[in-house]
Description:
The protein is α/β, with parallel strands linked by helices. It is 44% helix and 19% strand. It is built from 22 helices and 21 strands. The strands form six sheets. A five-stranded antiparallel beta sheet has the order 2-1-5-4-3, sandwiched between helices.
Amino acid sequence: MVELIDVKDYAQQIAEAIATVVKIDIEIADKKLIRIAGTGRYHKGVGQSMDRQGYVYREVLRTGHQFVIETPGIHPLCGPCKARGNCSEKYEVVSPINVDGKAVGAIGMICFTEVQAKLIAENQHSYLIFLTKMAETIALKLKEQEFMAGLVSANHYLNSIIDCLDEGLLTTDLDGMILHFNQAAQGLFSANLLHPSSRLDSLFPPQIVAEILTVGKSAEDVVEREVYIESKKNQQHMLLRALPMEGEGGVKSLAVILRPFDEISRIVHRLSSREVGYSIEDILGESECMCQIREQARVIAASRSTVLILGESGTGKEILARSIHNLSPRRQGMFMTINCTAIPENLLESELFGYEDGAFTGARKGGKIGKIELANKGTVFLDEIGDMPLYLQAKILRVLQERKIERIGGITASSVDVRIIAATHRNLEEMMAKGEFREDLYYRINVIPIYIKPLRERKEDLPILIQHFIEVYNQQLNKNVHDLSEGFRRRLQGYAFPGNVRELQNIIEYAMNLAEDSRLTVDHLPVRMKQEELQEEYQDRFNLERIERETILRCYQMTEGGARGKEKAAKALGIGLATLYRKLARYNIE
């Protein structure tokens, strides 16, 4: 909070102005009874304490009211004063300096001659009003000083906040003159380029400056584009964003934000961390093949070599790929998933490699960053690579061989450092034979192959997977299931799971939604599994071959056996003896 002593120079000017007009000495004290201004015989005492003689001032500060002392030295307030009865003062008028209803100081008008005392006594009302106005003037100055101090503090605080930003921030006028910049921006450019009187055209090429200045023409416009900045150390790849800053009457200035391109990748990585949070322990299973896969993933994680994950849909290829990424030195970088089947063929190239400004009709202003470039220092997962068009396979091959990409419409290639993990459910060797997949790309991605068996070939993994999904949906659905009926287990063990682990998860989720107690039973299975079992039951009950074998066996067992028995059996069955011999051999009946 601003104190009266902070405006002592102004208070001294007021005191001198009053003394010049009324020809009477003035003194001003703060709330601690320190004389901060004075004229005449009080001038030498400025800065000194009035504690031993300022009893009237003390009372003014306590009450916040004016006091008139017509008989200094005799007045009751002068009782404690050492000069009592021998005071040189003849008349005294003291007025409080009030700020927000509280006395922060006092101003006094002191007479030392009878002439001065008589003058004030005869015009006391006018002098009281005059002194009150002077006190208000000082109070206003104090408020102004307090307001200015608040502005300075707020400005300092705001600058401190701006300097805490990792992004470089510049503000310019509408002509491109730099108005302000933060420490991050200062760290990007050398001092001879960036200073309070520098211009945008000393920092950026003319084309970029022209784009930035177009923002000032409309408060709705925002420019975003990539730039390369020759910083103090090296060339930096940055994302530039320019936007208008409105004031009274419209846009008055522009803000230019510069963010390192690598930082964009880290932000996207953080936002997608929910999906990336898989560890190798999330690859569940106690079968020999799953144990081998977990061990292999730990070994190859530190490598930068390409991995090809093979397996049917729903076996967990993406979870394995994410786990390898999270075990690797690249785990702080992006894990970028690109599904070669889900993205339309005409959009896949721009998704992978990005494009330059104006590369084609409808291209976004400033161009677009491709996912491979965005994953620099990270991992790119090419899911269902067997469905990638042949012309794009050639560009992926270049990424693997030269570690470079070229955007659509671009004329220069940019270096990238990414690890490729590919996956497919298709037989790539058969596709190569048919000319549907490039042979050179196949051998580049098949450096470290990993095959995940379908669930029907590793049924020993079912118990741990079932238990895992039950725990997941107990939490999600607020259930308390912890037991399975024998029929439920038997149905799952006998099921082929064409959708693999993903289908098992869906089956458990369905059953958990229907469960009303702590036990899952056959009644909780999906309809398709019940129908399949019913169909198998009917097929078994009405199978003609089974019925024929059982009929022949019972009839044959009822005869005497031997040649004579066979003749009787053939006659009872209504078939010839040769036919019976043939059927006995077919059904392995002796």
